[in-house]
Amino acid sequence: MAAMKEIRVALTGNPNAGKSSLFNVLTGSHQRVGNFPGVTIEKHEGYIDYKDVRITVVDLPGTYSLTPYSPEEIVTRRYIIDEKPDVVVNVIDGTNLERNLLLTAQLMEMEVELLVALNMIDEVEDKGISIDTDQLEKLLGCHIVPTSARRKQGLDDLLDHIVSISDGHIEVRKNKMTFSPVIEAAAGKISELLGRERELESANHRWMAIKLLESDREVYSRVKQYPVWVKVELALQEAIMECQRLNSTDPEALITEDRYAFVRGAMQECVRQPRASRASVSDYIDMVVLNRVLGLPVFFVVVWAIFQLTFTLGAPLMEGLAFLFSLLARSLGPMLPNALLRSILVDGVIAGVGSVVVYLPNIVLLFIGLSFLEASGYMARAAFVIDKVMHRFGLHGKSFIPMVTGFGCSIPAIMATRTLKSRSDRLATIMTIPFMSCGAKLPVYVLLAGAFFPPAMAANVMFGIYFLGIVVGLWTAWMLKSTVLKSDSEPFVMELPPYRWPTFASVVFQARMKALMYLKKAGTLILLAVMAIWAASNFPHSRDLDARLEREKMRIEASADSPALKSAELLRVNSKAQADQLEYSVAGRIGKIIEPLIRPIGFDWRIGISLVTGVVSKEVVVSTLGTIFSIGRSDSAAGGLTSILRSDPGFSMATALSLMVFVLLYIPCIATLGVMKKEIGSWRPVLLYTGYVLAIAWSASFITYRIALLIR
Amino acid sequence: MKLSELKEGDRAEVTSVGAEAPVRRRLMDMGLIRGTELEVLRFAPLGDPIEIGYKGLLLTMRLKEAEGITVKKLPVLENQEPAGGTLSRILNFRRG
């Protein structure tokens, strides 16, 4: 077979234009998620084989514009300029043409191989909007393909156009935008000056001139390196004065106004829309959801509903999975003759990994809930409603979105803080996120609350724990912002997207991705941790203890008790021996060392071990408890961890509460610390932060434990 | 007058967009330029931020940002219903 032709296509567009949906339906399962070089904005790349061409598609971050103010915009711009994709597809929301075309105008100025995907064409038709695409094509100088990612319309047509543009069958005419005379005069002069500079020969001079007139700091610093700058600067100053004199504004504003004038002209020529009735469905929903009186209650109800979805609906599914694992352990146990092998598989792998995997339904439900909020458009409303509260703690309404995501997993949440532009807002939000109790901590709460509280109380206890996390998180943010991170707060300017029903396919897609990620984690990192913990709690092995066990056994066999009494007695000494072995092991010794530190907050050395291992990942706390507490227990397979803990003398309701508080607040998992370091840039603040959370966790657990003891 | 001084339901035309460079840029990217006609839709339940509507777009910003935008108040249209009509009146307990 001949080598396939390969081309690269970049998808650009406004946020909410349906770019990512289009990307998903185009590339299907052939996707890779990485990062853009140097920054941690997610880079989604995928490919599709179409008519003997391998088309690699890159989903660039959604932007309103191509200024260098936000990392997203810089990434998008650099990708287009430096990587020179074969085709740039501009995905535009057909129902919101005017604003979407502003970005199109800026792409035209860059003179790239542009193709417009007029997306959401189904909604456009439903709304009775008619768009004369032939005329619009003439004005924009590029082809337009109507698509609907949601209904999978126009995809082949889009791919055909991409291929034709890349092999030159379709020529992109690259129309020039015409600006006001002042701007045109200045741009002409400046680009002529730039053309004289040999090192800038291959650059797009006109584009650079326009960008300089827009006070674009990236282009500024590039041109400043060359001697021609002296003349360019003079020309710029002249332009600013002329612009003030003739148009009583500055070049930057005038250029934007000119772009809008072009877009509006195109709209008038090509688009007919029915006079919008004053209130759409979105408006009616907002009247309730953003209402002065109802807004906040609605907000809290939505957050509460997500919780109910996760816990109430997840519970029976979780129990089902737990039953399957205990069945597996029970049927596998007797089949394995070797005691060591049996211990590895049953006490180690099945108990450890099983105790993590059973929470899969909860995690998936939580992520479904969050992706529903995001895709429906409510998430932005929530930021609007809650901004004032956030602002009071020195945060930003937008901090709310990463914080809510933090309830799922801290890692994507910390990455999501990139939408915040001020560094101090970002740092404060990042430091808040680990207190937003993540999905991995959920198993700990479900286990402990389920074991020590009646079912009706368990959900309330968990809600209380989550609430405590929010309080401590906000307090931390406020403290940071009023001391080390003191600075002006970031501006809040945010669009409220129209409400949309998220498609079933996209929600399922999200849920599947998260489920796979979780299982992968359970199968790799957690499996490794589990094996290490198993080894640490079984070695070194004490021969003295073995010998003592043998002596006791012989003593019992030789006694004159009844057979029933004898076997009960045997079971007891066996358990005692296993517990003593654990104490003798590496894990036991580490636990013993830290025990004096954690005794005041109600933990014995066995809980100490699980806290140490929990730094690997929070689910591991549960699997460690599962491994350690079932050693030396004959009823491990039958009753499950819940009943083991309930009947263990080392555990009480007060211990359980204290442990939940500690797990909520103490060191984030290793992966989170890694991402924090990457986002902040150095280890020092991360280490300081680790010390801080340990102090907070210990104090809060101490108070919780003491109060719980008093109440009991 | 400033955008931040308008009341719920007021209509106005933008006369200039001030504010610091990045904010100003963002506002202009969102289509808020000289001559844009807008309507103040509501304030958040806690009084800040403000939500405005123009060209079929809903934009929210803090009052601090709204201070940078100067506007000329427009007369209320003859047939202008409060956004959302009856439902809005029912739900706006405080406005009576």
How would you describe what is shown here?
The complex is a heterodimer of chains A (712) and B (96). Chain A is α/β, with parallel strands linked by helices and 712 residues long. Chain A has four domains: 5-166, P-loop containing nucleotide triphosphate hydrolases (Rossmann fold, 3-Layer(aba) Sandwich), CATH 3.40.50; 181-272, Orthogonal Bundle (Helix Hairpins); 295-482, no CATH class; 528-711, no CATH class. Chain A is 64% helix and 8% strand. Chain A is built from 33 helices and ten strands. Chain A has a seven-stranded mixed beta sheet with strand order 2-3-4-1-5-6-8, sandwiched between helices. A two-stranded antiparallel ribbon of chain A has the order 7-9. In chain A, helix 24 runs parallel beside helix 29. The N and C termini of chain A lie far apart (77 Å). The model of chain A has no long low-confidence stretch (mean pLDDT 84). By secondary structure, chain B is an alpha+beta fold. Chain B has one domain (3-95): SH3 type barrels, CATH 2.30.30. Chain B is 21% helix and 31% strand. Chain B has three helices and five strands; from the N terminus they run E-H-E-E-E-H-E-H. Chain B has helices spanning 21-29, 63-66, 85-91; strands at 11-17, 37-43, 50-54, 57-61, 69-74. Chain B has a five-stranded antiparallel beta sheet. Chain B is globular and about 40 Å long. The two termini of chain B are 26 Å apart. Strand 10 of chain A pairs antiparallel with strand 4 of chain B, so a sheet runs across the interface.
Topology:
The complex is a heterodimer of chains A (about 700) and B (about 100).
Chain A: E1 5-13, H1 19-27, E2 31-35, E3 42-50, E4 53-59, H2 71-83, E5 87-93, H3 97-109, E6 114-119, H4 121-126, E7 130-131, H5 133-140, E8 143-146, H6 155-166, H7 181-195, H8 205-213, H9 217-223, H10 229-247, H11 251-270, E9 271-272, H12 281-289, H13 295-311, H14 314-332, H15 339-357, H16 360-376, H17 378-392, H18 400-405, H19 410-416, H20 423-432, H21 442-452, H22 455-482, E10 493-495, H23 504-523, H24 525-538, H25 543-558, H26 563-584, H27 586-598, H28 605-613, H29 619-630, H30 636-646, H31 653-665, H32 670-680, H33 683-711
Parallel strand pairs in A: 1-4, 1-5, 5-6, 6-8
Antiparallel strand pairs in A: 2-3, 3-4, 7-9
Helix pairs in contact in A: 3-11, 5-11, 7-8, 7-10, 13-16, 14-15, 14-16, 15-24, 15-29, 16-23, 19-32, 20-22, 21-22, 21-30, 21-31, 22-31, 23-24, 24-29, 25-26, 27-28, 28-29, 29-30, 31-33
Chain B: E1 11-17, H1 21-29, E2 37-43, E3 50-54, E4 57-61, H2 63-66, E5 69-74, H3 85-91
Antiparallel strand pairs in B: 1-2, 1-5, 2-3, 3-4
